[in-house]
Amino acid sequence: MDRHLLPEEFDLVVDADAGVDAGFGVAPLRAHVRACAECAAELEEARLVAAELDAMPRLAPGPRFADRVMQDVQVFEPWHVALGDFARGLVPASPAVRAAAAGGLLAGAAVLTVAMVWLAARADALAFTGEAALARFRAGFWAAAGDLAAALFGDAVRTADGALVAGAGAVFVLTLVAAMLALRAAGAAGREAATVAARGE
Amino acid sequence: MPPPPSALDLANLPDADVVRLAQDGREAAFRELVRRYERPVFSLVYRMVRDREAAEDLAQDSFIKVLNHIDKYSPEFKFSSWLFKIANNVAIDHLRRKRLDTVSMDGAPNAVSESDVAASRLEIAAVQETALEELEARELGGAIEQAVARLRPMYRQCIMLRHVEGRSYEEIAATLDLPLGTVKTYIHRARHELRRALEHLRA
Q1: Which of A30, A109, B106, B171 is most buried, most CB within 10 Å of its CB?
Q2: Domain boundaries, chain B
Q3: Please, what CATH class does the domain formed by B7-202 belong to?
Q4: Residue B180 has pLDDT above 70, yes or no
C-alpha cells in the first residue's frame, strides 16, 4: 500500500483489535502501519482513545432504585401459573409425608373407582332410587309452596282452582316487579336532584 | 411442573428465561432484570443527560415501561436491546424537552428527518455550571468523560453502546433503529472528535 491510512481505516484496525470482523482488508493496513511511523503514531492515538472509552465505568443508581421501580410495576400472575402454584402448595415438603399422601390418594381413587364400577353395574337400581328421590323432592316442594300460599292468602287457596291460583301468583309477582322498578326510579330521581342541587351551589 | 427458581438460581439463567418467568408473574424475575440492567441503563441515561436526579427518574421510567409491557416482549430480539431502545428514547425525549436550555448547532449530517436533526444536534451546556453540575462533572471524572459529554447525543449513544456496553454495530443499529452504515459513520466521527478533543492532553 503506497498511501497513508484514511481516518476510517484507523477505526477498522481498532475494531479488528477488539475482535470485530473487518474482513480481509485489515492485513494490508497493519502491514502499512508497521512500515509507516506517521500512521503508527496515529493508530496508537486511536487505540488509546478506544482503550479509554472501553475503561469508562458503569455508574450505579441510588440504593433504593430497584424498590422504586418495583413500586410502579404491575406484577400479574396468569391463572394457570397461580393454579400451578396452588397445586404445588398442596404437596407436602417432607418425602415421607409426600409418599404417605400419595398412598392415601391412590387408595381413595381405588375405592372411588370400585364404587363407580359397582354403581354402573346396577344402573337400573340407580335410576329407580333417583326417580324416588325426585318424586319425594317434588312433593315436598309443592307442599311447602301450598303452606306458604295458605299462610299468605288463607286456607281457601288449598281448595281453589289451579288456574286461579296461578293467576293470583302471576299478579303477585308482577306487583312485586312493578314495586321494585318504582323504587329504583325514585332512587335515580333522588340522586339526579341531589346532583342538580350540588351544581347549583 | 418445575418449581419457581430461587433468586440464586435466577442469577444463573439467561435473559430469555428470566423474562419468561417475569411473564409468568414472578416478582423475583422482575427484580433480577432490574438488578442486571440498572447500572447499564443508568450509565447510559446519566451520560446522556448529565444530571443524576433526572437520570434516575428517566432510568426508572424506562424500566417501568419495559416491565409493565413484558407480556409484549418478543423473544426473537435481545431483551437488553429492547430495554436500551426504550432508555434511549426516554433520554432523547428528555433532551428535546430541555433543548431550550441549551444552544444547538448543526444536526448530524446523516439526519434525514426533523426529529433526527433535533436528536443529533451538538449541545453546548451553559458556560456557568451550578455547584451540582460541578459535582456531577467530578463524578463523571476524567477528560474522556468530559469529551464524551460534548458529543452530539446520537454520537454519544452509539459510543456508549459500543464501548461501555460492548454491543456490536448490528445490535446498535437495531437498538437505535438506524441503518448499519449510519451507526458506523457516527462511531467513526465520534472517535475522531474524541481524538481531537483529547489531543491537547497528549501534546
Answers
A1: B171
A2: 7-202
A3: mainly alpha
A4: yes
